[in-house]
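User: Quick sanity check before I run a bigger batch. Here is a single chain. Can you write out its predicted 3D structure?
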Amino acid sequence: MNIGKISKKCKKAKKIIINLQNYQQAIAIFIEFGDRYEQANIYHNLGLLAKAEGNLIEAGQNLLRALEIFAQFQDQHSVEMVLSILSRIYQTTQDASLLESISQVLGISIDQIRQQLESS
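Assistant: Done. Predicted structure follows.
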């Protein structure tokens, strides 16, 4: 690996760490003030960040938190966005517990979840 590639990877890693720290600070503030909808947005972004880094378990956990809040707010657009990402994670991991968690959050059967994920 040449020095240019190493330098780019280091810059990317620093940017990710800064983003993660900012998101963690933001989530603490939104929790303190009880702003659930903004918490969902932060969990969504944390999920995207974890997914980009290949940490699919952490990504799924954060996206499920976002999904739960978006569903409580009946924000169908955001629910569908999060489901699309969770679908890609499920296709990669084939983790049945992910389907169970989505089913519990949305209050629909695992078969219905499978159908939704396959169509997205």
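The helical segments are 3-32, 36-52, 56-72, 76-93, 96-106, 110-119.

User: Great, the batch can go ahead then.
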